[in-house]
Amino acid sequence: MFNLLKKIALITSIAAISACGFHFQTGQLVPKELQTISFESADKYDAMSMAMRKQLQMSNINVVDPREDVAVLRIHNVRTNDEVVSVFKQGREAEKVLIMNVSANVRLPKQEAHEISVSVNRTFFDNSRAALAKSAEREVIWNDMREQAARQIIAKMVALQHQVKTAK
Question: Which residues form the signal peptide (predicted)?
């Protein structure tokens, strides 16, 4: 009888949680000073800039034209690299590590700029027999890495703003 009650309670709680549409609101973590920023990059239509704008929008951060009273997020450099981790017996590359390093800076209103850098790594199994499929998979992985780097930049930007606020 007790096991039956436990099972019913477990099923009911899972059904209630999955049916209610619960999800985290990341925009609530962003302080008021960073809810409106200006975003700058060398090429505003490259893949990293587009991923950054998408993540800013998902975090409920308004992107506006440069002004003196808003924070400025500037992406300086995006470096990508891949390194061979393992090889097949025949000497062909088997597995690679894809590496993305992004450097940016944040200038809070009426303050100096603070450097932010993030690094994202992923492993990629490279099979030369399925080159076209692996090329598409590789591009999907790079896009996911760009979005993860953008989320990390936003998290570091929020943490930096809290550090500057508590240091005053």
Answer: 1-18
Q: What is the pTM of this model?
A: 0.78
User: Are the C-beta atoms of 43 and 65 separated by less than 8 Å?
Assistant: no
What is the C-alpha end-to-end distance of the chain, expressed in Å? 60
Q: CB under 8 Å to 61, separation ≥6 — which residues?
A: 27, 30, 34, 35, 36, 37, 154
Sheet holding 93-107, edge to edge: 62-64, 36-41, 71-87, 93-107, 113-125
Q: What is the pLDDT of residues 81-120, one digit of tens each?
A: 999 888 888 878 888 899 999 999 999 888 888 999 999 9
Phi, psi at residue 22, to the nearest 5°? -65, 135
